[in-house]
Structure formats: C-alpha cells, structure tokens
C-alpha cells in the first residue's frame, strides 16, 4: 500500500505540464555575406493552433525558398533570412507581449503574424507606438487601416460582396431570401452588417440572422428559425468559426436543409483545410468565396501546392490564408530589395506599388496597405475541393467599407501625408 | 398543433443531450457530493472512443461488413473507457479528498487540463493501449480468488497481472498504430465522427422532419435513464449506494463496504459521461475541448433539478431544453405574430442563441432565489448537513 502511494505521487509529479517556446532558424551554411532575422508570431498552442500552425509552415517554406534562391540582396550584399518563431498561445495579450519581445529584444525588422481580429487589435498599439511593422495574412472585416500593419488578406469587398452578388443574381437560389448565421464576435457581425446593406441595395430581403456563442454547438434553435424564415429554401450566409461549422453542417443536413431541397449555404470561413475536417459529404453543393483556391489551374498555383506537399507531407492541403502568408514574405523581400535597406520607413514607402505573381494571379500593394486581388466563387465538390464557377478581375481593396453605414465615403491612403488613415473621398 | 409538436420535439432533443451529459454528474455530484470538474473530459474520452471505434471498423477487414453498427459498439466501449479512467481518478485523487470540496474542485480541474493535453500530445493508438492496460490491470484481480490474492504469493500475482496488462496495452498500441495510420501520430486537430448512412437524414412525419441522429440520442438517453433507475432501485448494489448516500457512517457500521460503493458509483457516473460523449460526437466535431462546452450546462441541470434527485435532473434538463427552443427560436413570435409592439421587440431581442442563454441563466437564478435547493430537494436527515 505504501509503495503504491509513492508510485501515484510520482505519477502526479511526472504529469506536470512543461511549456516550451519553439525557436527556429536553419544552420548558417551557404555563401551569404550576412544574415537577417525576422519574427514569426502565430498560435502554436490553444484553440487557434490548428489553423495558425499551417501559416508558420507556409512562412518557413517561403523563407527557405528565398534562401535557396540566394537570399535577400540589399545594397549589393546578400542576406540569409533566419527566423524566430514565437507562440501567441491563442491568447491575445500574449500576442502583444511577444511582439514587444521580438521588436525590442530580438530587434527584428519585420514580424509576420496573427490570425484572429482580436489578436491583431491587441498587437496594433504595440506596432504603432514602436513604429515597427506587422504583416497580417488573414481575410478580415476591414474597418481598420494602420500605417504599421500590412494586410494581405481580403477585405469584405474582395470576398463577401462579390459572393452576395453571386448568390442573389446567379446561384440556383437567385432572388431568394437571405438568412445570416455566424459566431458571436466581431468579424461575423461586421461582415453581416455589410451583407445586410448590400442585400437591401440589390432589392433582396434578409429574413433572419443569428449568432452562436463561441464554443456552443447546439444549433437546433437556429435550424428551427431557418425553417420558419425560409420554408421553401433560400440563401444562407455562414460566418461560423472553426469547429462550430461541423455541428452546423451535420445538423442542417439531418434536418433537410440541403441543396437538393433548395437551401444553399455561402461560406466565408471554410477553405480546403476545413472541408477535409468537416467532411465533403456534408458540404457538397454549397459555396465558398476566396482569393485563392487549391484547384486554380495555373502553373504558379500548382507549383505552390506541390512544394507545400513536398515540404510538409502529401496529405497536406493549401488554402487561401496560407497563400496570403506566402505572398507577404515575398512582398517584404521585394520591398526590402527595392528600398536598399531594412529600415521600416524606407521599406514602407517601397512596399506600395509592389507587384507579385502570386499563386492566385497578380497582386499589387495599394496605398492603403492592402492588396488588390482576384475573387473566386467556388462550389464545394465531393473530392473536398472547390469547382471554380466565377472569377472576377482584379478587385481593389477597400479598407473602409463603402456599404457599412459608419464608413461610407471614407478611404485610406498612406502615400499622401494629408490623407492618411481615414479621409473623406 | 404542428408547431407545438415541433417545438416539443426540439426541446426534448436539446434536453436529452443535456440529460445524458448530466446523468453521470447527477450520480457523482448528487449521490457522492463530489464536484467533478473533469466530467466534461470523461465525455471527451467517450467521444474519442467513438472516433477510434469508427476508424477500426473502417480499416479492419473482418469488421467492415458491420460498419453500420459501429455506433452501438462504440457506446459500450465508451462506457468502459470513461468508466476505467473514472475509477483510476477516484482511486488516485478523489478518494483522498472526500469531505473537502474545494480541494476536490481544484484537483479535478487539474485532472481535466491533464486529460485535454494528453489527447493533444499522445498518439491515440498508444492512448488506447494505456487505457486497455489500465482496464485489465484494475479488473483482472477481481477474477482471481481472494485466497490467492492475499496468500503468500499475493504480491507476485498482483505484479503478474499488471505486467500482463502492460504487455497487452503495448501490443494494442502497436497493432492499432500499424493498422490505422491516422492514430499513430499525435494531433491537436479536431477529428470528425461520421454517422453511418442509416443514421443520416431525417424521418418526415406529419410535415415535420425528425433528424435521425436526434432520435438516436433521445433513445440512448432514455435507455441510460431506465438502466440507472433500475440499477439504483432494484439491485442490491443500488440499494447499498442509496444507503451510503443517506448515511455513510451508519452504512459502514452495518457492514456495507463504503469504499466499494464509492468505486462503483464513480465508475458508473464516469461511464455514463462516456455514453454522453458518443451522443455529443454525433452532433459536432470531436476535440480536446468538446467536454468543456457542456460542463456548465451539466451543473446547471443538476443544481436546478435538486442535488441527488434523478427525477429532478430529468425534469430540469427537459425544461431547459424546451425553454431554449421557445426563447431561442422565437416560437412565441410565430404563435402570436400581432402582439403589442413593446412586447414583440423585447421577445425578438431575446430570440437569438446568445440572448436565449442569458435569459435562461437569469430565469434559473431567479428560480433558485425562491427554491435554493432546486426543484426536488433531498428529503430526510443527511449526516453531512
């Protein structure tokens, strides 16, 4: 008995959790004149780790590619890129704290990081007060334009607006009523405010909206509401987050809310990665809108997917957020080379106007620190990918949305000191 | 009529998820007075058991023809897995903390964190191996006669059973990881349980679609409740459990082994959490945090129903379920569309999932102001009070 007590005590001690901060960087071989260290800051633990770790993988791959091609050339000297990976731990104040550490202690010239809007909002004051530079790769609700952040994801007019237009005018449910479903936080609520304004402009009707608290997976009341509001089918716009989508799609299928019954769901947060988790059998026939889709049939897109699979395993997929993360590393490299220095202000000036042949097609950095990009509407197919139905031309980003009542008529321009963050057009 | 029926069905559907999740907690919290914050994680283990069972049925050739019935097998497996871990938890942690609720609360919360991290960082194949080793290590001694166990070679025999179980566990881990490659790597990613095709879709009846998974969950809940009631009321061990609940020291004096009663009660409570895990896995995705989402709801049900009363637990979960549907889906607005506008806008304001939750919490708090011991308070003299 005594002995067993001791064993149990030992077991209890052994189960202490140990947190390790991951540090990266490859060995310094090859012919480089010098090295430059950049910061990578995403969640490697906690709820967001699943999504954000794919960005770390992509950014590492982009850096390795640049190094293999000779690194960054500044002022005639070649620099090898090294990186420090910090863990934001899905905790927003940690993102701010680690940003300070990367800027002050490690002295990195640039940080690639963030996913949730909450983490970006927490980091923003740090970068502004230290006049440092953050590259943020996710499609988001916009209504923000910082001189110290560079946004490579889509703004609502580059994702949800063309998608709403498609659903109302050209989808099988064209002309139908809208029902909006989302997780209860800033992105879905802002995005839906814009969608409501747009549907009204188009002459359509939003017959209901509901938000599920984060972590809640009981969607039965929402299903009842959809059935009351849209008895004969219609358009559902879905901005649910992460695994809440699994519960939503499993349960609406059982309740008969399916494409064959006339219900079509347009999704803004479901990319290839999420399709494989939820299961294509639940999503087939519904829609998604992104700038990049793995099924884009161009050499650049195929090369991107192929090198990612080669680097990280054949079962991995690439999706829109990863493509944005990939682009931003290259755009930073180009801007640094054009500026001829790592100095923030010079790089910022050189950045605007940079173009890059991204996997999605050509992108260009605009004066409001966002990218002009192509928008694609796809139907989810049985293989877990998108069948691309429509492709817009290059769409310019609106940092201040022109359909949102609070920002109509405003724009952002950092190249003109008189205009700046928010000016009336 | 159709509306009432649909609302009732939805309420019962939501309520039965709450009930099956809270049933184990009602037994552990209600009968033993132990606040087990790891209850949600025991549910999570049940959900992962379903996932592993599903994969095994998909991969192993001689089980493939029976794939359609894997959910039924998973219920049994989940019960055993969660029950085993629950018994280990009782033996190692909770037994030492009886009578000190605050310490139990902290310790079980710690256990819940350990379990969450465990499924994130240990490959599921080896995790199942470990559970199997524990299962045989804990239960094989029951098959060996007492004379042998307490005889001269008792210690040796015990050591042998543990050695044998450890070997079995390692073998299971190895076999599983080579058979099912998905289980051989640790992953923090949420996984997905896909219901077999006969359980997908719905049954149309009097103009309402009844989702089949919901019907199955209601059935699982019903059977669990009936089995628990039968066990507590009709069997000898059930009677002993009730006796210990009412007066622990008197039962001890009368020759009931209270320690065994504790093990059995906790084992059954934990096993029921596993069954709840199967139900939950059919509705959403399976991840390390899946149980945490339900734990607050479970405590709400147990407290509202009255601690230690099964009838209260049943009524409480169904009333919360029906309230959720009534408020959250805005049923009153559909029934009475031309009510006075201030009332209409108030009800409309609460007719979202987030606000319905706020409203239900508020109603429960108000109810508890008038009946602090819940719907059906425990009667009789309790030795603890």
TrEMBL record, chain A:
<dbReference type="InterPro" id="IPR017777">
    <property type="entry name" value="ABC_urea-bd_UrtA"/>
</dbReference>
<protein>
    <submittedName>
        <fullName>Urea-binding protein</fullName>
    </submittedName>
</protein>
<feature type="signal peptide">
    <location>
        <begin position="1"/>
        <end position="22"/>
    </location>
</feature>
<dbReference type="Pfam" id="PF13433">
    <property type="entry name" value="Peripla_BP_5"/>
</dbReference>
<keyword id="KW-0732">Signal</keyword>
<dbReference type="InterPro" id="IPR028082">
    <property type="entry name" value="Peripla_BP_I"/>
</dbReference>
């Amino acid at each position: 008995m005594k002995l067993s007590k001791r064993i149990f005590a030992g077991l209890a001690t052994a189960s202490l959790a140990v947190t390790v901060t991951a540090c990266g960087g490859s060995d310094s071989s090859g012919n480089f004149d010098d090295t430059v260290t950049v910061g990578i800051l995403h969640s490697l633990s906690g709820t967001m780790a699943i999504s954000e770790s794919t960005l770390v993988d992509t950014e590492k791959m982009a850096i390795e590619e640049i190094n293999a091609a000779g690194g960054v050339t500044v002022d005639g000297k070649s620099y090898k890129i090294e990186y420090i990976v910090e863990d934001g731990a899905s905790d927003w104040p940690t993102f701010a704290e680690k940003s300070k550490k990367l800027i002050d202690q490690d002295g990195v010239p640039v940080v690639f990081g963030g996913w949730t809007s909450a983490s970006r909002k927490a980091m923003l004051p740090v970068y502004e007060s230290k006049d440092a530079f953050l590259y943020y790769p996710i499609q988001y609700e916009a209504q923000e334009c910082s001189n110290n952040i560079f946004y490579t994801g889509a703004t609502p007019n580059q994702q949800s607006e063309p998608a709403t237009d498609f659903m109302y005018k050209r989808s099988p449910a064209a002309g139908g009523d809208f029902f909006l479903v989302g997780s209860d936080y800033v992105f879905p609520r802002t995005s839906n405010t814009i969608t409501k304004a747009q549907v009204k402009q188009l002459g359509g009707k939003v017959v209901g909206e509901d938000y599920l608290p984060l972590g809640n997976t009981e969607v039965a009341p929402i299903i009842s509401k959809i059935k009351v509001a849209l008895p004969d089918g219609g358009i559902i716009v879905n901005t649910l987050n992460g695994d809440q989508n699994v519960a939503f799609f499993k349960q609406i299928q059982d309740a008969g809310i399916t494409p064959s019954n006339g219900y079509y769901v347009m999704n803004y947060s479901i990319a290839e990665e999420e399709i494989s988790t939820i299961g294509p059998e639940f999503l087939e026939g519904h829609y998604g809108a992104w700038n990049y889709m793995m099924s884009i049939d161009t050499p650049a897109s195929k090369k991107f997917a192929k090198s990612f699979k080669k680097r990280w395993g054949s079962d991995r997929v690439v999706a829109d957020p990863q493509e944005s993360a990939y682009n931003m590393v290259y755009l930073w490299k180009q801007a640094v080379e054009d500026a001829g220095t790592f100095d923030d202000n010079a790089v910022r000036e050189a950045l605007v106007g940079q173009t890059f042949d991204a996997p999605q097609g050509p992108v260009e950095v605009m004066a409001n620190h966002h990218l002009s990009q192509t928008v694609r509407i796809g139907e989810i197919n049985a293989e877990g990918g998108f069948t691309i139905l429509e492709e817009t031309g290059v769409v310019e980003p609106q940092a201040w949305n022109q359909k949102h009542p609070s920002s109509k008529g405003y724009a952002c321009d950092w190249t003109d000191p008189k205009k700046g963050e928010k000016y009336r057009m | 009529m159709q509306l009432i029926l649909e609302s009732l069905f939805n309420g019962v559907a939501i309520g039965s998820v709450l009930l099956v999740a809270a049933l184990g907690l009602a037994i552990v919290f209600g009968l033993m007075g132990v606040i087990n914050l790891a209850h949600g994680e025991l549910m999570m283990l049940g959900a992962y058991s379903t996932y592993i069972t599903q994969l095994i049925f998909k991969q192993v050739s001689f089980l493939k023809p029976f794939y359609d019935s894997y959910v039924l097998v998973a219920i049994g497996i989940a019960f055993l897995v969660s029950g085993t871990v629950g018994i280990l938890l009782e033996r190692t942690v909770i037994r030492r903390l009886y009578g000190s609720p605050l310490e139990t609360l902290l310790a079980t919360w710690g256990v819940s964190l350990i379990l969450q991290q465990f499924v994130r960082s240990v490959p599921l194949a080896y995790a199942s191996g470990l559970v199997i080793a524990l299962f045989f290590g804990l239960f094989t001694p029951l098959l060996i006669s007492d004379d042998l166990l307490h005889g001269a070679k008792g210690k040796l025999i015990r050591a042998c059973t543990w050695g044998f179980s450890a070997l079995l566990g390692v073998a299971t881990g190895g076999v599983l990881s080579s058979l099912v490659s998905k289980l051989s790597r640790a992953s923090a990613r949420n996984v997905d349980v896909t219901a077999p095709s006969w359980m997908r879709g719905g049954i149309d009846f009097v103009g309402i679609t009844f989702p089949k998974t919901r019907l199955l969950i209601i059935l699982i809940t019903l059977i669990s409740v009936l089995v628990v009631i039968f066990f507590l009321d009709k069997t000898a061990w059930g009677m002993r459990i009730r006796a210990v609940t009412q007066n622990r020291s008197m039962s001890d004096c009368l020759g009931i082994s209270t320690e065994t009663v504790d093990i059995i009660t906790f084992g059954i409570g934990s096993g029921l959490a596993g069954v709840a895990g199967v139900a939950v896995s059919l509705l959403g995705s399976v991840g390390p945090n899946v149980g945490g989402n339900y734990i607050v709801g479970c405590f709400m049900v147990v407290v509202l129903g009255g601690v230690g009363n099964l009838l209260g637990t049943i009524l409480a979960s169904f009333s919360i379920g029906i309230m959720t549907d009534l408020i959250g889906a805005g049923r009153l607005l559909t029934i009475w569309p031309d009510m006075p506008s201030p009332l209409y806008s108030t009800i409309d304001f609460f007719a979202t999932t987030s606000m319905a939750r706020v409203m239900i919490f508020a109603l429960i708090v108000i109810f508890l102001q008038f009946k602090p011991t819940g719907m059906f308070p425990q009667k009789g003299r309790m030795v603890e009070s």
